[in-house]
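In this supplementary section we document a worked example of the pipeline. Step one takes a protein sequence of length 265 as its only input; no multiple sequence alignment statistics are reported here. Step two produces a three-dimensional model, which step three serialises into structure tokens for compact storage. The input and output of this example are shown verbatim.
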Amino acid sequence: MSKRTPEGPPPPPTVQRVRIQYTKRGRLRFTSHRDIARAFERALRRAQVPMAYSAGFSPHPKISWVGAAPTGVASEAEYVEIGLAEHRDLDALARALDESLPDGIDIVEAVDAPVGTSLPDRIVASRWGIRLPGLEPSVVEAAVAAFLNAETIPVERLMKTGMRTLDARSAVVSMRAETGSCAILHLVVRHVTPAVRPDDVLSGLRTVADLVPPVPPEATRYAQGPLTETGEVGDPLAPDRSPTGAAGLTRQDADRDEAAIGTPI
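The serialised model returned by step three reads:
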């Protein structure tokens, strides 16, 4: 029996790979990653981005998601890589895609992806901020101290395969409490498998210090990328930017520049 092959010519090859940083803000923080991906694919079609497709009987656009935030949290640093069948100007592509996306998903930056480089290899940690309304800063500071002094903090999370125990402490690189009108946790969390999420850290604080927020906390991811020598989260797109700074102009950059010079760009 001869092997079946798809009818018609093969899809055009990928001639340009683009890495995109985008946000997930407002009410969209409650949207699942699957729905975010669907909205993104619709926006790519609406913006007439010439996507490259995989071969086979069920071709699909070449889109690679990296480190998607869990449902229920906001993010300023989400990343996706797309493959194009035709070369496109990055500035025009970023603007068209930004205008085609729903409110809350904003394009921060778009850069070319050099051949032979891997974005997932650079995404090893996240920097989070967790607002804790209704809690006294001194109580939060004491809970942070107890968390950091613990060697291990087992917490349970329900997964598709059932209940699983995670060590919330081992993934946390640093944590501090910001005092003010509302207590805010600032933490750097290493990406491990399975991932330790903000909810797991809050579960760990409840375990070691009986810290229970009276109202739902609000978590936001502000950065994800490589870990620096000082324990901070670096910029994963830094190696990809044009030396002249021309690549990666965002819509926000264009609006700011236009306002500054008073003439259209």
